[in-house]
TrEMBL record:
Gene3D superfamilies: 1.10.287.70, G protein-activated inward rectifier potassium channel 1. It comes from Fluviicola chungangensis. Residues 74-146 form the Potassium channel domain. The chain crosses the membrane at residues 61-85, 97-117, 123-147. This is Ion transporter. GO terms for cellular component: monoatomic ion channel complex; plasma membrane. Pfam families: Ion_trans_2 (PF07885), IRK_C (PF17655). Keywords: Ion channel, Ion transport, Membrane, Potassium, Potassium transport, Transmembrane, Transmembrane helix, Transport, Voltage-gated channel. It is found in: Membrane. PANTHER family: INWARD RECTIFIER POTASSIUM CHANNEL (PTHR11767), INWARDLY RECTIFYING POTASSIUM CHANNEL 1, ISOFORM F (PTHR11767:SF102). One of its GO terms (biological process) is regulation of monoatomic ion transmembrane transport. One of its GO terms (molecular function) is inward rectifier potassium channel activity.
Amino acid sequence: MDKQRKYKQYESQDPGLGTAYQKSVKRILNEDGSYNIKRVGTIRMLKDFYKFLVDLNAWKFGFFLVGSFLAANLFFAAIYCWIGTEHLHGINPNQNEFVAAFYFSAQTFTTVGYGAIAPVGNLTSFVAAMEAFVGLIAFAIATGLIYGRFSRPSTKIAFSHNVIITPHKDNMALMFKIVNQRNSVLLNTKVHVNLSLVDEDSESNMMKRQYYSLPLEVDFVRYFPLTWTLVHSINDDSPLYDLTLSEIRGKLAELFIIIEAFDETYSQTVIRKHSYAEHQWATGVKFKKNFSADESGTIVLNINEISDLEVLS
């Protein structure tokens, strides 16, 4: 039987990642689940500022909040100094005027209002009133952003660093491991695996990418409290059949994994994406067992050992 016909049952339509390229491309999906795609013509940051801030990593988001607070108060402090600090009653004569205006601005912006300094005159009072209004709006927006960041369901599923090809039962098999890093238990966990292989079309000199849906020995579990080794048997129907490690890498093989599970913490379905490519393919090794029972009969799971390998004897 022709090899291509054998693989026909596993062929998959383009999952949205493209099939033809003028030259070889890097991996499409990064290990963290982000796409290795440069998008041109998308909505710019200022037009989609909310999504930009919600997606910003934690320390940059914190820097943005602190920086915005300082910038706003420096701006209003400069206005008070321009109007004249003599219109701010109660400033300590031994204190720098701009510093005093900055602290008064911070108290007004946050509506704390200690009362040590008070605006005098219509113009200064109007600026203080506008600043208090801006402060209320700013803190409402900041509260919404913080809630939006913390309320989003997320997963902490860790993947083994390598995907390996190793003997399994009477055949070779493709394997990788996953584990939930949180104490919560994921329920009704489903795993989808797609394989991408690239060949050069001699007629068009284009790189053609073919996708295959890889069946797993077990792709669904009701409970997911321990590590889970996902296994695809490489029999004569598998697109990886008879391919050496160098041939797999030469075909720019990339494994796309999507995990869907119900998280009891959020009471929502969560999704995790991952990819294996390039140097992450390995053979001649097997995974070490990273859980065992202690003297009391309790199962001890070492999450940090999920990627540990040992050479086949």
